[in-house]
């Protein structure tokens, strides 16, 4: 079962991603001393650097590149509302879209969780025959998700890096953002299609 996955990042990170040719995990990005516009909770990112992974390639959650099984994620709502670590809003956030099969073809160290990976009671699963146990239809399409907040935050995680070539397209909020992204993609070996999807935003 192939499932669409989405990684959000700030447009200011795109040039570095293109130069590196991949998305790095937080742990590897810190090791390489790469500049990054953080859009996540700093205290959660720090905790993920220590939270152990018991399946796949082991290590810690911070050594994995995270994806959600939906655009318009719970974290994007937090970004939209603004918080102490990032008050820049959602307008310049990109959705980098791929699918589970494409990533796993180039990275054998993958697993998924049934809820937010940082929670103590999240189940870590590297048996992908079980991915149907997630209610992907509800996770990806439910716009009013307060009743399924935990399930909405289920994650797909790939060890250390995700090759840029497996990103299929980039979702943005406005035509202006699409133009900016297309300019940054000029000259890149792999240029995913940029699509304007305001319904992926709050």
Characterize the main sheet: 4 strands, mixed
User: Which strands sit side by side, in order, in the main sheet?
Assistant: 1-4-9-10
Radius of gyration: 16 Å
Give the helix level as a range of percent. 25-40%
Tell me the number of strands: 10
Strand content: 15-25%
Describe the structure.
The protein has eight helices and ten strands. Strands 1-4-9-10 form a four-stranded mixed sheet. Strands 3-7-5-6 form a four-stranded antiparallel sheet, with helices on one face. A two-stranded antiparallel ribbon has the order 2-8. The chain starts with a strand and ends in a 6-residue tail after the last strand. It is an alpha+beta fold. 28% of the residues lie in helices and 22% in strands.
Characteristics of this structure?
10 strands; 202 residues; DNA binding; alpha+beta; 4-stranded mixed sheet; 4-stranded antiparallel sheet; 28% helix; glycosyltransferase activity
In short:
The protein is an alpha+beta fold and 202 residues long.
Write the layout of secondary structure elements.
Elements: E1 4-10, H1 14-20, E2 22-24, H2 26-31, H3 42-48, E3 64-68, H4 74-81, E4 93-99, H5 100-106, E5 110-113, E6 124-125, H6 136-141, H7 149-152, E7 155-159, E8 161-163, E9 169-172, H8 175-185, E10 193-196
Parallel strand pairs: 9-10
Antiparallel strand pairs: 1-4, 2-8, 3-7, 4-9, 5-6, 5-7
Catalytic activity: a thymidine in DNA + NAD(+) = an N-(ADP-alpha-D-ribosyl)-thymidine in DNA + nicotinamide + H(+)
Organism: Parashewanella spongiae
InterPro entries: DarT (IPR029494)
């Amino acid at each position: 079962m192939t499932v669409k996955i989405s990684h959000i990042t700030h447009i200011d990170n795109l040039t570095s991603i293109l130069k590196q040719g991949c998305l790095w995990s937080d742990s590897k990005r810190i090791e390489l001393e790469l500049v990054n516009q953080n859009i996540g909770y700093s205290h959660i990112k720090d905790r993920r650097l220590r939270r152990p992974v018991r399946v796949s390639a082991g290590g810690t959650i911070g050594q994995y590149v995270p994806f959600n099984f939906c655009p318009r994620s719970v974290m994007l709502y937090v970004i939209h509302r603004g918080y102490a670590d990032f008050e820049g809003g959602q307008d310049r956030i990109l959705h980098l879209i791929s699918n589970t099969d494409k990533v796993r073809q180039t990275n054998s160290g993958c697993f998924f969780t049934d809820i937010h990976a940082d929670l103590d009671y999240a189940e870590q699963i590297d048996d992908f025959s079980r991915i149907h146990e997630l209610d992907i239809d509800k996770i990806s399409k439910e716009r009013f998700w307060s009743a399924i907040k935990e399930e909405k935050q289920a994650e797909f995680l790939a060890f250390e890096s995700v090759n840029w070539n497996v990103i299929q397209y980039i979702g943005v909020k406005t035509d202006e953002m699409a133009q900016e992204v297309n300019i940054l993609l000029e000259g890149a070996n792999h240029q995913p299609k940029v699509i304007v999807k305001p319904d992926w935003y709050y």
